[in-house]
Amino acid sequence: MIHVIINEGLEDTDFVTGYTHGFDALAERVTDLTPEWAEEITWVPAGKIREAARMFATIKPALMEWGVALEQTPNCIQTVRAVSLIPSITGNIDVPGGWVFGMHGLGPVPSLIENLSPEQNAKRLGFENFKMLCGEGAALPAAHIPTVLQAMRTGEPYPVKAFLIFGNNTLTTYGDSKTVYESLMKLDFMVNTDIFMTPTAALADIVLPAAFWPEINEVCGLPTIAGNVIAANQQAVRTHECKSDEEIFSALARRLNLDVGTETPEEVYEQQMQAGGSGLSFEDIKQVGFHQMPITYRKYEADGFNTPTGKLELYSTRLEEMGYDPLPSYAEPPESPLSTPELAKDFPLILTTGGRNPFFFNSEGRQVKSCRKGAKQPTCEIHPATAAQFGITDGAWMWIETARGKIRQIAKVTNGINPRVINTEFGWWFPEDPAPDYGVWKSNANVLTSVKPPFDPQMGTYQLRALLCKVSNVVAGELAE
Fold first, then answer.
1. Does residue 461 sit in helix, strand or coil?
2. Strand-pair partners of 208
3. Which one of 82, 137, 191, 341 has the minimum C-beta count within 10 Å?
4. Is 270 helix (H, G, I), strand (E, B) or coil?
5. Can you tell me the distance from the alpha carbon of 314 to that of 22, in angstroms, rounded to the nearest whole number?
């Protein structure tokens, strides 16, 4: 799409010339990346790619959106950068109806990372390898999960012996559930804080009851990045010993006699309100419920952009400084018909594993009867031609298998999917099944995924999408076995 926009002169010349850095380098990078080149990779006809590019570039305003499907790949950062450059070169930046940077009425949650010494911070697992996740390029540094799991199992680069889990059903929501299980079983100590008992909580040494939304005070800025609206959530009830995650964090900090992190959640919310631009206190926002900030557009005309060049960087000088490619680039997934042709002979179909169900949030809600009325069993989308080829019937159980494992879901035969693609629902387990597994191995999509390298060079993400799989019908007696 960028190739078409630049080749046909559809970019916003005034914005590109006045407010971006690296347009010529970007134009050179996409010279050979034609719609015909993309059609072979994506199976999207070249004519439709051109049509989409022209439509986006000529209809103003416009904005671009993406989700975790792009991010859960080993080429996460560069793919997202490529998408983000489309509204950038068409001038849809900080304008009504386009990408709005927002007014940031609420300050960020204090990370307290400034209290770690450089030596201690450098021990963060993944620090050296994935600088945008764990190191100098990270806005809120985290740890690299596959490296954490490896440290649990092997003690390398150092042992991880304890794990505190908050609102996370790790066995279903982390990639490669079998490896996750092996890793968790190596721990000396595990704490799980959740609303319901889950397969992960059943493994824990201590289970703490989490507070649900009606039981907590909270403040948030929406949309997440722009923060134009500040909203308050107010505690209406408190059930027995339930506590919010933040209450538990601060209680632990006090018990450990730490110098920081001991504030109550309400004190932190007040800090966020004072750091924002609304002029309101936490008590004020509780009284009004929500506050909408007046929006100023095209702030870059006066302030520029928060980058080393002061411009919107099509060519990222920060990525270059960290040793990464400053321009978007394509990388074939490590498991695909092209990358692993021998594996594709046994697993000829493309698997996506992130199918969401509107009745649930991730792995939550399977034990809520009103939610399960809408979706009693997990479903897997398959094209009619593919279903007929493998003897699979709409509404019947089918097997989905990769090189890592095998699960079953209910076939949903639909024309709305490519015949070469299978789409599984995510996050399934069965609270009605016996403890402690609760059926986590039966239909859990992450039994099929992997946490092995190669990883995204900047962010450390791995391949949870576009994996290779095969399918078959479930014959009588197999489920009982």
1. coil
2. 193
3. 341
4. helix
5. 5
The SS3 call for residue 394 is coil
Q: What DSSP line would sit under 235-269, residue for residue?
A: -----TT-B-HHHHHHHHHHHTT-SSS-S-HHHHH
Tell me: the pLDDT tens digits for 141-195?
A: 999 999 999 999 999 999 999 999 998 999 999 999 999 999 999 999 999 999 9
Residue 203's nearest CA partner among 258, 152, 135, 270 is 152
**Number of neighbouring beta carbons within 10 Å of residue 185:** 11
CATH of the domain at 96: 3.40.228.10
Do 288 and 305 reside in the same domain of the chain? no
Tell me the residue type at 343: L
Structural domain range at position 8:
2-100+297-321
Start-to-end C-alpha separation, the chain:
50
Upstream peptide bond of 436 is cis (omega within 30 degrees of 0): yes
CB 3 within 8 A of CB 34: yes
Helix (H) or strand (E) holding 180: helix 177-184
Number of helices (H) and strands (E) in the chain: give both, helices first.
Answer: 19, 14
Cβ atoms 208, 248 nearer than 8 A: yes
The alpha carbons of the chain give a radius of gyration, in whole angstroms, of 24
Q: Measure the CA–CA gap between 125 and 444, rounded to whole angstroms.
A: 27
User: CA 398, CA 121: separation in Å to the nearest integer?
Assistant: 47
Count structural domains, the chain.
3
CA–centroid distance for 378 within its chain: 21
Residues 304 and 276 placed together within one structural domain of the fold: no
Q: How far is CA 311 from each of CA 88, 162, 234, rounded to the nearest angstrom?
A: 11, 44, 41
**Is 308 within a domain?**
yes
Of residues 158, 157, 116, the one with CA closest to residue 138: 116
Write out pLDDT tens, residues 388-431. Answer: 999 999 999 999 999 999 999 999 999 999 999 999 999 999 99
CA angle 101, 102, 103 (to 5 degrees): 135
Answer whether 0.90 is exceeded by the pTM.
yes
- Please count the residues of the chain: 481
- At residue 408, what are phi and psi to the nearest 5 degrees? -130, 145
Q: What span, in angstroms and rounded, lies between the C-alpha atoms of 332 and 173?
A: 25
DSSP symbols for 184-198: HTT-SEEEEEESS--
Residue 267 tokens, joined? 């004190």
Nearest to 320 by CA among 137, 87, 85, 75: 137
Element (H, E) at 50: helix 46-58
- Joined together, the tokens standing for residue 384 give 């009619």
